Each structure stands twice: as C-alpha cells, then as structure tokens.
Queue: 3 jobs
Job 1
Amino acid sequence: MTTSAEVTAALLLLERLGLTPEQLIDSAESRPIPTFSTYIPTVIESMAPTTLRVYGPYLRRIQQTWPDNRLDEPTTSQLRCLADETGKNAMIRRNSRGGRSATENLIAAARFIYRRAEDDGLIRPENNPARRVAKPRRVPSTRRALANHQLAEIIRVAATTGNDPQLDALLLRFHIETACRRCGALSLRPSDLDVEQCLVFLREKGSAVRWQPVSPTLMRALLEHIAERHRNAAIESEPLFRRRSGRPITRRRYDSLWNRIGQHLEWVERQQITAHWLRHTTLTWVERNYGYAIARAYAGHTEPDGRSGQTATYIRASLQEVCYALAAMTGEPHPLAA
C-alpha cells in the first residue's frame, strides 16, 4: 500500500525532472504523435473543397516550415511568429490590409490541424499551442450597397460585352434577386428549381441550405438557359449555369466577368467590386424597406447567433415575407406573395 510519504517523494522526483503526473498519463496512453508532413496530407484528404481552397496554401506553408517536427513541438510563440511572417510576406493587392487576412488564415489553418489532432487523441486540449494564438482584430469591410445608377452601369456592360453576355446578364440577375453567394450559384442544379412556386434551392457555405424565391421572369430565363445549354436529360443533378459549349461555369467565369466590367468602368476596377457587393446591395434594400428580420431571412441567416439576445428567437421571418420583399423589389407578383 502506497504511503503519503512515498507519494510526496514521487511528486518531488517528478518536479526535479520537470514532469507532471498528467504528462506521465499522456505518455502511457496517447498514440505516437505524427509529424506535420505525415499528418497534414491526412487532414487535407478529409477537408471540404471550399475549406481547402481557403486553408490549403496555409496548411502547405506550415508543412514546409516544420516538415519533420511532431505536432507537439512548435510552441505558441513559434506559431505566432510564423503567422506574423506570413502576413508580412503576403502578396500586396489593391484591397490588401497589411497582411491581416494572411495572418488570420494561417492561425485558422493551425487551429484546424490541432482541432483534428485533439479529436484523434493525439494531443490534449491544454497542450494545444494554437488555442493561445490570438487572431488579429478584424477591420470593417469596405463592401457596401451600390447605388441604382452604379448597378445599372454594371448590368449594361455585362449584357453588351464579352463572349457570352446572355450568360453574364443572367448570372447578375440571379445574384441580385437571390442575394446568394458565388457558391450558391455554382452549386445550383436544374433539379433545384420549383417552377410552380418560383423557388430555387440554394446550397451555400457551412452546408447551409434554403429555398429562395425568384421572380417569374428569372425562373423563365433559367428554364430557357437549361433548354438551350443542357443537352442531356440526365444532367438534372449537374451544375445549371453553363457556357455555350455546354460546359459548367467555374469561379473563373466570375473573375473574367468582373475584370471585363472593370476595364469598361474604372471605378469598378479601383474599388475591387465583385459579386458579393450585389449581395450587400440587395440585403441593404430589403433591410431598409422591410426590416432586420426579413433581411436576415433573405440572406439565409435564419438562426440567432447567440449575440442578438433571446428576442431574436421570436422575430424569424417567414418565406412568404421574403417573397413579399422580392415582389416589391422586382415589381413582379410572386406566387407565394398573393
């Protein structure tokens, strides 16, 4: 039977060795800790494409910096220094903010790695160095709602220039009416159209899904687009928006569209206007005319975020109310807003 004197002597020995009882438990029970070059490829294989697109470069940066280091070797200070260095060396663009995004993304990528390592039982939460690295404070976004004449100029250029103005004009109208993100349009399928009720099923970031109303005019344009560019009935589950060749559009279509608009409208190029500004424009109009609750539902932010207080639970807008806002904005009656 172990006496108190023996326990005291054991603790004193551990103290002299610079160890804690928890570390002894970890060494006895935990799995061998892999290196970054071994573990990061495993993490990447399980990541969603959209997440990988954001974190991929920063995961590779960490792997290149510490290829042969075990996950438990870098300290909090070393991670913070790597994040700061990444921000300083970030590519300078017109809308750059001193490398803040690069710094934040590297910290987020490191947290992603260590969160997986915790889930896999490779490290304990209190030994996670990424938990103690603070992200830089976010500065307000420069995006804002566009004025009516600015929106009209953008639509005019898109509909009268380029190799496929019909497609570009349809894309812009889709974003203006639905206020969806770029991923919402790229993931749209012919099977996602509810023609009778003029609704489209949107899939956006964070696996968020919702039925969003569109005007009868836009629904007819989508059906005409499908009839013209979808040559196979089995393509119902494939991307809806397609080029004249029948191939689905990608993110590059947006890049070329806004680059072209910027060539004709200097202020678009200078301010780095993108499709996300259309989302700001529509949601600002809805909020000003129909209130916060309907604007939140229109945007797909239907669940309270915990910071709005308990009242937010009781001010959820219905789909019918979103349809009312759309009908007022487009000037067209909607089947669900009768």
Job 2
Amino acid sequence: MSTTRVSARLRAPRAAVYRALTDPALLARWRFPDGMTSVVEPQEHGAFRVTLRYDAPDAQGKTTAHSDAYTARFTRLVRDELVVEVDEFDTTDPALAGPMTLTVTLRDHDGGTELLAVHEGVPAAIAPEDNALGWRMALDRLAALLAA
C-alpha cells in the first residue's frame, strides 16, 4: 500500500472548494483523470458510488472490462476546512481490495484556497506515480471548474 500527497492552489474561496468536494453532482464534473468520464450516484447514509469509464476501448478496468467503480462515504466533515472520506473499489481482485482514506484539508491562501489531499491505503496494484498523476489531472479539472 502507498500514500499519495498532492496539493493545489485554487482561485476560489474555501466554501466553493468544499462544496466541490462534497456535492456529488460537482464531484462527477472533476474528480477523474484524463481519458475517463465519471458518474456519481448518491447512496443511503451519505455514501456515494463512483463509476469511472475509460474512453479508450482497449483500456482495462478494475471493476469491469472498461470501468473502475468504488463506493465512498464521508467519515468526517468540517465545513470549509476538512473532508475525510473512505473509498473501496468494487472488485473481486484481492490486490485492489480494502479501504482507502482520503483526507482533504483546505486553508486560505493569497485570496484563494490551498488544498492538500492525502490518499492513504492505495493498493500496491496501483503505481504511486499513476495515482499522483491522476490526482494532478483531477485537480487541474477542479481548478478549471472553480474558475468558470
């Protein structure tokens, strides 16, 4: 297992960033790497299911032939400051099984928001550099969403 740490400086107030981290409709618009699309479905008790579909027909998914899916739930929320979520891939592959914890901290920075994300428990089957790249792509998309 590995841990990925990424950060971003966003030109938006913490309240807007927090909403983008917790609103399923907004999550579906930014939290995925290039080459994929996302569907976020709210579930009971504050959980949500995320399905990431590969654009390339020859891509190999973790859940189905062309998709990765995971179930997520918020375990701690501090408005405009902190989001802690536990994610687990929907898979039968033991190399990808187990909970991952995502902790996102927001701080004021130079008229905007500094975001620090720590993604712990990432399965060894996912290369740390690939996970970091996926996060950077998603955070670039988040920055563009918030700037619009």
Job 3
Amino acid sequence: MTASPALSDRQPRIHALWDALADFSSSQIVDARQYLLHELSALLEADNAMWSGAVRLAQPNLNDPLGGWRMPVMTYLHPLPSIDSTIRDYQQSYEDGPDMKSVRFHAQAGRFRVLLMADLVEPEWFESDFYRHIFRKGMNAIDVMFVGAPVNADTEAGLAFFRSETRFTRDDCALAEQALRSLRWFWRRLLLGHGLMLAGAPLTPVEQQVLQLLLQGKNSKQIAADMEHSPNTTNEYLQRLYRKFGVSSRAELMALWLGQTRP
C-alpha cells in the first residue's frame, strides 16, 4: 500500500530515528528512551510523552477488570509539577476500580495497537471528574494517543503522547504505527533495563545504575568506585541483580541481555 503524503514526508525522520536508536549502547538505555520520546513528540507535535512497562500478574484476581495488567514503571519526557501526585492517583484508581479507558486498552493486550482516547471511552467520559482531574489538570492534556507494544505474553511497552490544545487524528495514529511498529527489539531492551521482563521484580533506581555499569563492562571494584559504595555493598547489589534475573554470573546476565542462550 502506498504511504500517504504525510507519511512519505516524514519517512526520512523515522529512518533517522531508527538509526539513532540502534547506535545507543546497551548501557545508555535511559538516554535512548528519552531520545525516543523527544523525537516522537516532535514528529507527532505532542506536548509531552510517557513510556511505561506493563506486566501481567502471575495469578490475577478472577474479577480483575484489567486481567492482571499493571504498570509498575512510568516515566515522562517532561515531568510536570503535579505529575507525581497525579500518577499516584492514577495508579490508585486501578485498585479502586479502573476507568473504562484502562479496561478497554488492556483488553487488547497481545497485539500492537495505536488508539485515540476517543476509541476507548464514551463521549460523556470527557465531561467526567476523572478526565478533568487526571488529564486536564494533572497532565495538562486535552487529548492522548496510546500505544501498546507487546514483547511477550506477559509484558508490554506502553507509550502515551499528550496534546494540550488540539486532538490527535487517524493520520497521527498511522504515523505513530509507522515509527514504532518494528521496534520490538528496543522494547525488549527497555523492559530488561527496568527489570520488567526476565527479572522476578522491578529494579530499584540503584539496581538500574549498577546494571548500566555492568553493561559498560565495568568490574565490581570499578562499580563500587563509580557508585561510591563499599565493595561489600556493591557485591550485595550484584547478587540482587543476579537473583532477580535468575542467573548466577555476569556472563549469564549478558547472555540474557543479548538474547543468547545462557552459557
């Protein structure tokens, strides 16, 4: 199928984005994530963007309207003054009873999808207190476009792009799909970097820092010096990482990271 003129005009920018992401090393995962959000926001004329790691609980409640899906990691391109409290309210809403938007979005888990907010809610939802409190006030957004990118049966990368004045269109959805559909390798790397794929639990910020230094090829003494930790503390963090990823050595961890068979 021939690409629309809008997509054709933006194709060189999409290719440049893919090339740039491939040039980031495994230890630059945070920089790569922020670069992606920045470039896609510019491409989509969005005012802000969010990336999340979504995981499905091993034994969800049978009555869970989200089917066990949760987002333990959420990060924004431009954190707003009220964003922390807004995220807490949003996450709490999942336990108190998630809104229909979240239910419908996670019901489609398992396939790549780009959805407008209007695809997920009834028209009257835009008059709700939830929309006004979470989106208009907390996130300074009049409209949001959502992207779900599955990596395996129990993990997904999620993205959201926010506009404060105008609404997204179907052409915007097509552009986002063109740019993001083939990046499964990158979503896997992001999820691994946050301990949301093979790890038994999400990584803490300090564990993420230690992991990045490991991926740079640094030994335990160099990591201790960089982190200003004692050797014992560093070894403790290394052992925690190995336990979370279910490995026993740096070599096995690197094999997992590179998608190789464990040595």
